[in-house]
Amino acid sequence: MQPEVVHPAEGKPMNFTQIYFGGDYNPEQWPEEVWAEDARLMQQAGVNLVSLGIFAWARIEPRPGAFDFAWLDRLMDLLHAHGVAVNLATPTAAPPAWMVRLHPEMLPVTADGVTLWHGSRRHYCPHNPDYRRYARRVAAALAERYKSHPALAMWHVDNEYGCHVGECFCPRSTAAFRDWLRARYATLAGLNAAWGTAFWSQTYTDWEEIEPPRAAPAQKNPAQQLDWARFTSDSWLACFQEQRDVLKAAAPGVPVTTNFMSFHRPIDYFEFARHEDVVSIDSYPDTSDPGWAAVSAMTFDLIRSLRQGEPWILMEQAASQVNWRQRNAVKKPGVMRLGSLQAVARGANGILFFQWRQSRAGAEKFHSAMLPHAGTESRTWSEVQALGRELPRLNALLRGRAEAQVAILMDWNNWWALELDSKPSNDLKLLPGLRAWHRALYRRNIPVDFAHPESDLSRYRLVIAPHLYLVSDAAAANLSAWVERGGVLLMDYFSGIVDPNEQIRPGSYPAPFRGLLGLEIEEFVPYSPEGRNSVLTADGRRFETRFWADVIHLRGAEALARFEQDYFAGSAAVTRNAYSRGSAYYLGAELEPAGLEWLLERVLGEAEVQPVLAGLPEGVEAQRRADSQREWLFLLNHNAFPVRVRLPAGGRDLLGGQAVGGEIELPAAGAAVIETVIDRSRP
Ligand code: GAL
Fold first, then answer.
1. 620-677 CATH
2. What are the backbone dihedrals phi and psi of residue 629, each rounded to the nearest 5 degrees, phi first?
3. Given this model, what pLDDT does residue 679 score?
4. Residue ranges of the domains in the chain?
5. Which has the least CB within 10 A, 45, 218, 354, 653?
């Protein structure tokens, strides 16, 4: 009997009883004598969870259908005896060589028709029925074997879906695409209309004529490409779901996750996250970039937002360097700790690493690990151990949530559509826009969520909509209704242009937002890389703009800044429209950072959004988690020198273990987590 599939997004969030600490554990790479030392050192480091067997398919099933669990039995018992719980993986991201030999058609094929062979990992087509059958079978065998093992804490399905191979163009995928399209459109007439196939004689008269958007002579049909992206995203989800169902059937109460990869284009994470019990993410900021902490903050804010603020797990991070950049910077002393505490501050209840013990062989032997080649006489090990000792001090905050009053809108459909070719400027990408707003808010210590444009926005005071090019009717109505109720919206250029079929919305731009914004846009003026304009604000400030300008006609909005050059000099570049109880700002240019600051200052003021803590020294990050009784103020000093921070109230520093009064000194790369009891008598 099929289990009843709970809809996790509506179900109970995972019940954490401690902050998880550990990492990917790949014991199959080591002789068995090493395992006992692993377990002993894990205990010494305070490890309480490992992700086991992620790439161990060839060891678990050395021949088709012949499972070898004896070694895994011993490991599960050993780990349990040392107080280490297991996040048991289905090993389906690395199919064994025998499978490829038996079913070579399971290998993925690129848009150019190139087959990607065995000898690395993730060499499978998500639509291949043989692969999928084997994947379900190994998941079922693991579930049956370990469903009642006391070490089992959760399931880790596959590894980083869509990584390396985001899509597959083989004949099976083509057939699956046609099925997906039939289900979506029912009729060819419907598909032809949605894809606008009258253009360039692309009309289809039989489903079998439809192909994936392969390499083609010129620009491909954009709606076809967009549906292909949706189909691909759905396919990865389907791979996950069928394994999840197998695991749930055997062990209904054990949470299921898969590890996400920051802003990862092939998969709509908002949709995917709804089908997990807890979300988890891998984060590898380049710490040679002085702005690394803003990068990881953005990743953490995304993962927290995918399930509306539920606690999540940092499934992988590097203890120090990675192996896959051109130059792999180490994490200097204190940086790994700061990054880990940053995750907890932003809602993580688990801090894990790739990987436990540094490999001796294979492509990742120069990737750092909790236990490096240098062994326990090393800086990395000391820092790992210190973190393992420190994290349990934060167990009180497991139910604390990190909440935000500001949301940045994010929709994978918009991301896919915006970055298709044949735009006014093909240099317009989504993430730089998101990053610019996020970074400006990060620097001000203003908490931010990412929100889907169709989601409930009622908890936010300010919503920022960067390049919301594709917008559904539901999303447009949602935004207008939210502003009507008093929200402050800040939208920027190239928003409200196409519908979900990637077709221009009728009427002048931006059709669904003209009334809300009180303006019309006549044309878009993209600039060459050297091209510049400038704006003069109504309050007398001048800012440079580049890259893009909208030619705006006001229809009720007021101009807050006007262009100074080009044939549209004097027309509005930044506007505000009072709309019912709220207001809608629009930015029709790419403003220099100082200009973004000027605009943010204004919208934050109108929305009455406050930072976590005002007056912090530059380079100090502040974030808050709170439950119904207590709150925890995280202070992270990213500077290489000590700073003094004035506190709104005294409390107890959980890291330092002492009471603090009105001021605290944070050493270079230092941190504090100040616990205070919420005073309910205050308004
Ligand atoms: C991740 C992956 C891990 C490991 C790590 C190295 O993307 O999930 O298995 O390869 O990168 O940084």
1. 2.60.40.1180
2. -110, -35
3. 76
4. 406-607, 620-677
5. 218
